[in-house]
Write a structure and sequence with these properties.
The chain has helices at 59-80, 139-152, 176-180, and strands at residues 9-10, 16-20, 23-27, 32-36, 42-46, 49-53, 83-90, 95-99, 102-106, 113-115, 121-126, 131-136, 162-165. The protein is α+β, with helices and mostly antiparallel strands. The chain folds into 2 domains: 9-80, Alpha-Beta Complex (Outer Surface Protein A, domain 3), CATH 3.90.930; 83-165, Alpha-Beta Complex (Outer Surface Protein A, domain 3), CATH 3.90.930.12. A 4-stranded antiparallel sheet has the order 11-12-7-13, with helices on one face. A hairpin with a 2-residue loop joins strand 2 (16-20) and strand 3 (23-27). The radius of gyration is 21 Å and the shape is elongated. The termini are far apart.
């Protein structure tokens, strides 16, 4: 039995989970998320918990079991508390600023980069600290938007300049002078 899949998902207060055939809709304090699940996996609500079950022990069903449970758990958690990722900008002259919903990034290129976050995600530049906070209720979209911002200027291994996740470790390489000496 899948360790992830067999855990019940508790439904918090002020949250509601509806199952309509293959479609699951989760309503919470932060918003509404819905998703269509695989036809082989069955989902039911018992005692204010969401239970995910699978029909057999085949490899495909085992993997779908844990995946489906994790996706539904992320929906419940996102609509109840939300998700956020922090990015930090390191480099002389590198900065970010907000202009309405848009994020303007100055990352050492000859032009500023304009980033419009997807619907349901907010990207906020924290002034004076060179940080960007990406927040929303859909974990997938928050991670995707943060990865896209990081992809504009990935941290380079020699000086460490670029955009990185807060707490991310970037291994430094020795430069040319250290190799020849």
């Amino acid at each position: 039995m899948s360790r992830v899949g067999k855990k019940p998902i508790p439904i918090p207060d002020k949250s509601k989970v509806e199952i309509d055939g293959r479609k699951i809709t989760v309503t919470g304090a932060k918003g509404v998320l819905s998703r269509t699940i695989h036809p082989d996996i069955s989902v039911k609500i018992e005692d204010n918990n969401v239970i995910v079950t699978r029909p057999s022990d085949s490899k495909e069903h085992r993997s779908l079991h844990g995946l489906t449970r994790a996706l539904i758990n992320n929906m419940v958690e996102g609509t109840h508390t939300g998700f956020s990722k922090e990015l930090e900008i390191i480099g002389v002259g590198y900065r970010a600023e907000n202009k309405g919903k848009m994020l303007i990034l100055h990352l050492g290129y000859s032009h500023p980069i304009l980033f419009v976050p997807p619907e349901g995600v907010t990207a906020t530049a924290v002034p004076k600290s060179n940080k960007i906070v990406v927040a929303g209720i859909d974990k997938e979209l928050v991670g995707e938007a943060a990865a896209k911002i990081r992809g504009f200027r990935k941290p380079e291994p020699f000086k460490g300049k670029g955009v990185r996740y807060t707490g991310e470790y970037v291994r430094s390489k020795a430069g040319k002078s250290a190799v020849s000496a």
